[in-house]
């Protein structure tokens, strides 16, 4: 459990403290996620809602590894990757999806810690493996849809012609219209999540200190 706590601290620093990611924090995050996935396979770790959320958080770094691999290939072997295979927009959107998934899951973990600290008995029916699994799936579905929408918008901005079939035209038109306000909403939500997490752990810290 101490290793899992250290992993959570690393992730909070990476996504909710640092203004932008850098190579060192990304590498440490990937190594920490790999180690955490291995730990969670151990029989010593009980299957609880927090473990489910942490597992989903660690798996979110798969998106980072997918984004980093093409850059590592170029840097190591000097190989150029065709834009058709891995566009810069796709790589950036995968990183954005990873950030959004991680921030939402970290906020869920913080909220669960708040419930455990202040309402341990009353919230027991909410802090179940089933609810944690459902919450993780909803977050993944929503952020995946967001990533797809951003990708279609970037394709249109890159000069890709929209398909001629009617449903696809409507879909591309919707993505072009909704992308800008969704980006602004995501930025605002990120600020609110950072503020909420700071408040939660502030309350927990002083509650534990008083005890």
Any chance you could write out the topology, listing elements then pairs?
Elements: H1 2-17, H2 23-40, H3 49-59, H4 62-77, H5 88-118, H6 129-157, H7 166-210
Features:
single chain, about 210 residues, mainly alpha, Rhopdopsin 7-helix transmembrane proteins, globular
Task: Catalogue the unreliable spans.
Answer: 81-86
**Helix/strand class:** mainly alpha
SSE topology string: HHHHHHH
Q: Please report the distance between the alpha carbons of the first and last residues.
A: 22 Å
Count of individual helical segments: 7
Strand segment tally: 0
β-sheet strand percentage: under 5%
Rounded to an integer in angstroms, the radius of gyration calculated over CA atoms is 19 Å
Percent in helix? over 70%
Number of domains: 1
CATH fold field value: Rhopdopsin 7-helix transmembrane proteins
The geometry reads as globular
Subcellular location: Membrane
Protein name: LPAR4 protein
Domain G-protein coupled receptors family 1 profile: 32-211
Membrane topology: Multi-pass membrane protein
